[in-house]
């Protein structure tokens, strides 16, 4: 890195720290208290998410992998020559690798993620494993504006948003994200997106409250991160993981519940908790093919293909943006 790049990187980090402190203080000052799920993903959080994907109860990753395995060739047929694939929330890049193997037409790959360590590690490994591919990682919050690297400018673009990460947005934010992605990817682009489908509440509840307690550790890691980075005093033993399917709103809700009345210091401020009071840390919305299709059409995209696993738990959809 040049001196100039180092200074710019430090400023970006200072800015991210300030935004984290601001969002946490604002979220804990609200009624009800809430925190954004994008803050789950520090280095430990990303590792815990990877452990979640291996759990017997957590079906989304297994289902989506099986769909991609079966239909990689169908997806590859939608990809134009010399394309750039931009992945939103790339994490372990395991699913991108399946598309890269099936579609040599992809000559540039732009993983975008907020979790810097995992992003850089994956980018290094991809460069080693796909030596002819231009790998251009972008550390960014994809809910805001960010610049695409130069390698993408002259290439046709393919968006990839697997994992049902769009389900972590509120529906109006999901629609806004789709509109933003349409303008960023441009006319003629395709978006391959993973959607978790509405299903039996028992299956959903188990997926987000696993017997081994990994999802609980993932949820509680947010408080550990706040302690470490914002000089806070959360006692992790006195908060407990809660996850349940809200049938009416078609979403899993995750919360951290205070086991007692207590006061917590965060970034120089005090926050009081009643016994049983929760911090709402995540929603994971579930869609039907129809409800997602309607949202996509209202946000500049036309569904052109949809694939499902054999149980009908998960859907991978191809959306086209005309203009
Ligand atoms: N695509 C992978 C990972 C899904 S987990 C898969 O399908 O398994 C969600 C990923 O999105 C994580 O890697 C997390 O760091 C990233 N992420 C979450 N919110 C983000 C945001 N606002 N901006 C950028 N990346 C985000
Ligand atoms: C990343 N995202 C799609 C996951 C989900 O299923 O909503 C995050 C997660 N939260 C708890 N378990 C997994």
Which helices and strands appear, and what pairs or packs with what?
Elements: H1 3-29, E1 33-34, H2 43-53, H3 59-76, E2 83-88, H4 94-102, E3 106-113, H5 116-129, E4 134-135, E5 138-139, E6 157-161, H6 171-185, E7 190-196, H7 201-207, H8 214-230, E8 239-246, E9 251-258, E10 262-266, E11 269-273, E12 278-285, H9 289-297, E13 302-308, E14 314-320
Parallel strand pairs: 1-12, 2-3, 2-6, 3-4, 3-5, 6-7
Antiparallel strand pairs: 7-14, 8-9, 9-12, 10-11, 13-14
The protein binds S-adenosyl-L-homocysteine and N,N-dimethyl-L-histidine.
S-adenosyl-L-homocysteine binds at residues 38, 41, 46, 49, 53, 61, 89-92, 95, 113-115, 141-143, 162-163, 165.
Overview in brief:
With 323 residues, the chain is an alpha/beta fold. It is built from nine helices and 14 strands.
Protein described:
With 323 residues, this protein is of the alpha/beta class. 39% of the residues lie in helices and 25% in strands. The protein has helices at residues 3-29, 43-53, 59-76, 94-102, 116-129, 171-185, 201-207, 214-230, 289-297, and strands at 33-34, 83-88, 106-113, 134-135, 138-139, 157-161, 190-196, 239-246, 251-258, 262-266, 269-273, 278-285, 302-308, 314-320. Helix 2 runs antiparallel to helix 8 (214-230) and helix 3 (59-76) packs parallel to helix 4. The radius of gyration is 20 Å and the shape is globular. The structure holds S-adenosyl-L-homocysteine and N,N-dimethyl-L-histidine. N,N-dimethyl-L-histidine is lined by residues 52, 60, 163-165, 167-168, 208, 215, 282, 284.
